[in-house]
Amino acid sequence: MSEGPKPPEDFPEVTPGTDVDATDNAVENTVPAQPDSGPDVVSTRHGMFGGRGSGDTSGYGGLVRQVVLPGATARPYGGWFDEVADALESALEQTGVGVGAIEKVVVHRGEITFFVRREHLLRTAELLRDESRLRFEFCSGVSGVHYPDEAGRELHAVYHLLSMTHNRRIRLEVTCPDADPHIPSVVAVYPTNDWHERETFDFFGIIFDGHPALTRIQMPDDWPGHPQRKDYPLGGIPVEYKGATIPPPDTRRSYN
Fold it and tell me: Which residue stretches of 140-193 are H helix?
């Protein structure tokens, strides 16, 4: 009679942060991080659809929800996250930039994000690409986020980095105020960001200083405003249906 499958304890353990197979995606970091400083409350929303003035006819007018972001995470972060953080801090100190370039580190849902001060973004990106212990050679793009109630930090730019050498993924996040929406361009470090920065500028209005040709990429050149901001009007065209006129969404009482 053939033996059955071995019990789980007979299989070799896989240390978090080590490559299981060269063809796998970046290895998930399974070591739990330390408790963070608590969530950051960005804003409070009332009602399901943001109805104001005459009441919310959806029936959810009394609903109150907080918009929260995960707070800074305390060390140890767990697994290879600490290796990356140590290597980045060491490289920043050696080049004279200092660890003050990193505003905070957030470990959330098994992923690590470094919040970088915008004046140090370009140098930090260079170190992440060139330092042998880091080697994040590829940036898959930058995404914009708008939090209109986060005073002084309304606009966020999020960069997704991949180390093909070490099979790891991290994120960088940079903030800037709506009144001064300037962030250095990283196209000189990661050329793949060329069109991604143009798209983020087009839809969110973030100005990437030093970009070789920062123009709109999808909207017409004379288009007013930036369509993916939270405060951008919904727009719409009045529609007549069987004698009744349906107004655009942004002019309706309950969904304004």
Answer: none
State which H helix or E strand residue 111 sits in. Answer: strand 111-116
Any idea which residue has 């007549």 for tokens?
Answer: 240
Asked if 227 and 217 touch (Cβ cutoff 8 Å), the reply is no
Is-contact 158 172, C-beta < 8 A? yes
Q: Which residues pair with 113 in a beta bridge?
A: 106, 171
Cα–Cα distance for residue pair 67/46, rounded to 1 Å: 11
What is the overall mean pLDDT for the chain?
83
Query: Two tokens at 85?
Result: 């953080």
Crossing angle between the packed helical segments 80-94 and 121-130, to the nearest 10 degrees:
120
pLDDT digits (tens, 9 = 90+) for 198-213: 999 999 999 999 999 9
By the 8 A CB rule, do 15 and 30 touch? no
Length of the chain: 256
Q: What is the CA radius of gyration of the chain?
A: 23
Structure tokens given for 114: 């470094």
pLDDT of residue 8: 46
Taking 70 as the threshold, does the pLDDT of residue 36 lie above it? no
Q: Are 89 and 131 in contact (CB under 8 A)?
A: no
- Which is nearest to 201 in space by CA: 138, 191, 221? 221
Residue 189 contacts residue 174 (beta carbons within 8 Å): no
**What are the backbone angles phi and psi of residue 69, rounded to the nearest 5°?**
-120, 145
E-only strand ranges, 131-231: 138-146, 155-163, 168-176, 182-184, 207-209
Residue labelled with tokens 């140590």: 86
Q: What is the C-alpha to C-alpha distance for residues 195 and 201, in angstroms, rounded to an integer?
A: 10
